[in-house]
Amino acid sequence: MKSAPVSSSAKHKWFEVWPGVATASPAVTKGYDVALNRPGVPAGMTQRVSYVIDRSGRIAYVHADMDYREHVSGTLAAIKALRAKRPG
User: Fold this and answer.
1) Domain containing residue 61
2) CA torsion 41→46→49→53, rounded to 10°?
3) Cα distance between residue 25 and residue 29, in whole Å
4) Hey, CA dihedral for 62, 67, 69, 70, is it positive or negative?
5) Total domain count, the chain
6) What percentage of the chain reaches a pLDDT higher than 70?
7) What is the pLDDT of residues 15-51, one digit of tens each?
8) 29: DSSP letter
9) Which regions of 1-88 does DSSP assign to beta strands (E)?
């Protein structure tokens, strides 16, 4: 799965996780539906997913790819796009 902008009406409680890096607790794994369900992979492992959550708590961008190389550039571009839309 590659990156895609996400339009979600659901608000996410970003303040319940470490700003910038979420811990993959069972509740977070279930809430964000990121469990890595593959044969031979131990339970509790997650997919590699990066989220940009806007100031209102909505998911503005998701990049889901086990290849780490585009996560930072994609999320930074999404943050810049959000900043450009901000008034003043």
Assistant:
1) 4-85
2) 170
3) 6
4) negative
5) 1
6) 73
7) 444 455 556 788 888 888 889 999 998 888 889 999 8
8) H
9) 4-5, 49-53, 59-64
